[in-house]
Amino acid sequence: MEYVNFGGAGVKVSRLALGLGLRVQSDEAEALRMISHTLDLGINLIDCANIYGLMDNRENAGSSEGILGKALKGRRDDVVITSKVFSQVGPGPNDSGSSRYHIMREVERSLKRLDTDHIDVYILHGFDATTTLEETIRALDDLVRQGKIRYVGCSNFAAWQVCKGLWVADRLNAAPFMCVQNPYSLMDRRLETEMFGVVRGQGLGIMAYSPLGIGLLSGAYRQGEAPSPDTLWGRRGRERLESTLSGQAASVLETVRQVASDVGKSVAQVALAWVLSHPEISVAITGGDTIEHIEDNIGAVGWELPPEAKDRLDMVSAPMQQGIRDG
Hints:
Blueprint: E1 3-5, E2 12-14, E3 16-19, H1 28-40, E4 45-47, H2 63-71, E5 80-85, H3 100-114, E6 119-124, H4 133-146, E7 149-155, H5 159-172, E8 177-183, H6 195-202, E9 205-209, H7 232-236, H8 238-244, H9 248-263, H10 267-276, E10 281-286, H11 291-297, H12 307-317
Parallel strand pairs: 3-4, 3-10, 4-5, 5-6, 6-7, 7-8, 8-9, 9-10
Antiparallel strand pairs: 1-2
Helix pairs in contact: 1-2, 2-3, 4-5, 9-10, 9-12
């Protein structure tokens, strides 16, 4: 496994992180085995959120944190964990957002589920237009000073929102964002337009989520073939897969398959290696829900795409600046 500085921070993390969205995982015991095996393979960064849960079902929200807490018994000091706050967790008027009220309440709930006294990177899961960034940044900085969180990040922010957050933190002498977590893949290259310039200029790192294009580049799907019912797109249905995997997206997938055959790697390994080839990307988050998925994905680390292969992938995916719609 390769380890790098996490964005502008000194903490070292693996190039791949395990994401605990658990979209197609319904078995807690199996999830525990997967996490343990992932750590044994050398991945030391686990990405979680207060709304993540088994089968990506909001009725199970929080179960990912609870499972992670159990999995880290005796291993907590060797693992960097993230969690997130912002998303709707209940019907009340203060059950979402980035207010001091919501952040302070939710961090305590996350700490309890994780069975730990601190979260290494606490990430705003979205931009709250109803709360001033001054209030949000002060609340997060208070948590840093209290030792309940170590670093601060943001997710699903636009480039200008990241810049404003950094400016507010600087003005308040508060802990700044050290990472940005947004989607990036051969199917979705929107970050290149503005965000890449921001992270280069400000010394941040990017955690790329959905680096396999919502699973389309996992190797499990082919255009014109019905998806297996035990997969994410199998649950969504063949029509939704065909609608999403059409046009240029189909060309991207076919090119990835050809490159994978040429270099002797799997489709997922090639797609992940392309994401990791960009210096702006600190970490790619694998959303694999099984040990087999993780073992395949980890094969993306430790080698580089040949220049001609990268050029082919760059060219075929160039139109994906607008990304694809998550059916």
